[in-house]
Amino acid sequence: MRPGAPPAELTTILTKPKDVAESVMPPRRKTRQVTVGPVKIGGDAPVALQSMTSGYTYEVDKCLAEIHKLAQAGADFVRVAVPDKRDTEALKHIVPASPVPIVADVHFHFERALEAIAAGVHKIRLNPGNIRDRDKVRRVIAACKERGIPIRVGANEGGIVERKDKEQRAVEKAQLDEDYAAGLIRIMLEKLDEYLRIFEAEQFYDVVISAKSPDPRIVIDAYTAISQRYDYPLHLGVTHAGPPETGRIRSITALGTLLATGIGDTIRISYAADPVFEVEDGKELLCCLGLRGRTGPELIACPTCGRIEVDLFKLVADVRQRLAAEIKLPLKVAVMGCVVNGPGECEGADVAIFAGKGRGIIYVQGEQKQTVTEDRMLDALLDECRELAARVGRGEAKLIGAQVEVKSPKAQPSKGSAPLPVLR
């Protein structure tokens, strides 16, 4: 079960220069596979995306409405908190009405775990360290084993350092004072060893591991060490990440690094905000790394610079909103606003507009379609997107990410003049 000893040095993996031929993502780390309803985690299954409701579980209608929003945004399964019996009572109504599998988040009361299992949840999140009586933990394990329900075991920074046992607390504090990051990861590994021995003694192996921290460097090092020590699937996350404005950077730094090195089987990005943002950003991360196929449009656009010659920022915002509402295929759409980088950056888009001096030229998979004035850019671009999407739907076209050749609006020939060469 435990291939290899704990790594001697817990240092952050940094990307080293490689030859171009070697600059590809390594294969995903092979792990055990567990099942959460119809969703597979680990093994050769895709990286699963999850989130957690922010309201009270016992408010059934509100909870279900939130679950549906998260599922529609792209969550593969959703976690709900069950601190009270009224929450587990609500699960009897929530689980059968949910469009995705439900995970019950249990902390201190093993009875809530047993009640959630009886209500039909598809996975339990359990911290054995918060349940002092090991017989109670074993009862939860036995119930999950009987139902074929996996358990996620957390060794997160906020919950693993001993607070009640003063002697053990002193030992752990000394470890942390010496080198906080290394000491914390050492404690994480020790706690996981302790927890997993309980599960393995019961011959229960449908376990998912997490080891979160607010510090992305600790997250990277902890999961790297754990991936070398165990073959259980890993749930990645940065805890207490903060609001989306800063939490995005904190979360993507850690999760993107780990996923790009082949580590991670399921993820949650955590924000102090509407959890729909967690799903949207998590989905985009997985799509960017090629770990999830796009189901909706992809928009690329110029960065801020002084060369932009149209109101590009408003155009991009409007295009993004309209694409999300109207296009249900993974069209790649480019909106470019200057003559310098626009031509090259438009290449590979299914639909592209190259704007400047109050007008823009629209291309569809490499073919120039029309030149429009600035006031018609949005509607004309959406018309071309809708038309291409309709042709794809009828089987008359494919989304091929064609190399798009574009000409600068400044380079359009006047009447009677010779055509100018295509800009690259």
Topology diagram in text:
Elements: E1 33-36, E2 39-42, E3 48-52, H1 60-73, E4 77-81, H2 85-97, E5 102-105, H3 110-118, E6 123-126, H4 134-147, E7 151-154, H5 157-160, H6 166-178, H7 180-201, E8 207-210, H8 216-229, E9 235-236, H9 244-260, E10 266-267, H10 275-288, E11 298-301, H11 312-326, E12 332-336, H12 342-346, E13 351-356, E14 359-364, E15 367-373, H13 377-393
Helix pairs in contact: 1-2, 2-3, 3-4, 6-7, 7-8, 8-9, 9-10, 11-13
In words, what does this structure look like?
The protein is of the alpha/beta class and 424 residues long. It has 2 domains: 24-288, TIM Barrel; 298-411, Sulfite Reductase Hemoprotein, domain 1 (2-Layer Sandwich). The protein is 40% helix and 16% strand. The protein has helices at residues 60-73, 85-97, 110-118, 134-147, 157-160, 166-178, 180-201, 216-229, 244-260, 275-288, 312-326, 342-346, 377-393; strands spanning 33-36, 39-42, 48-52, 77-81, 102-105, 123-126, 151-154, 207-210, 235-236, 266-267, 298-301, 332-336, 351-356, 359-364, 367-373. An 8-stranded parallel beta sheet has the order 8-7-6-5-4-3-10-9. Strands 11-12-13-14-15 form a 5-stranded mixed beta sheet. The protein has a two-stranded antiparallel ribbon with strand order 1-2. Strand 13 (351-356) and strand 14 form a beta hairpin. The radius of gyration is 26 Å and the shape is elongated. The N and C termini lie far apart (55 Å).
